[in-house]
Write a structure and sequence with these properties.
The protein is of the alpha/beta class and about 100 residues long. The chain has a single domain (about 5-100), classed as Rossmann fold. The protein has four helices and five strands. It has helices spanning about 30-40, 55-60, 75, 90-100, and strands at about 5-15, 20-25, 50, 65-70, 80-85. The strands form two sheets. The protein has a three-stranded parallel β-sheet with strand order 3-4-5.
């Protein structure tokens, strides 16, 4: 499966528990492609993304701003525009409440 161009595989330890998980999905079924499609459909001027794990890296690369939660993996934090509070503190909701313009 590793060399199969039709799929992407991510294997890692669960961030908040001792178990491991394996994510197998079609190569085009990525957060990166989802952001591109949403930008096109909604004609977005700006995309802000939030994440905590390695599967968020492609989404961070295509987003205009990206915020990692405090307890995110280090590789994601390095790509982030900023670091917000941890995932147990409603940090994304608080960021949106403070910054979203509706």
């Amino acid at each position: 499966m590793e060399n199969d161009e039709r799929y992407t595989c991510n294997f890692q330890q669960e961030l908040y528990r001792p178990e491991y998980w394996l994510e197998i999905m079609p190569k085009k079924a990525t957060k990166y492609n989802a952001v591109l499609k949403l930008k096109e459909l909604w004609q977005c001027d700006k995309v802000v993304a939030f994440g905590d794990s390695i599967n968020d890296i492609p989404m961070f690369r295509i987003s205009d701003e990206c915020y990692a939660v405090e307890n995110a993996v280090e590789s994601l934090k390095k790509l982030a525009t900023g670091i917000i509070g941890d995932n147990d503190s409603d940090s994304v909701a608080k960021w949106l409440e403070e910054h979203a313009r509706i």
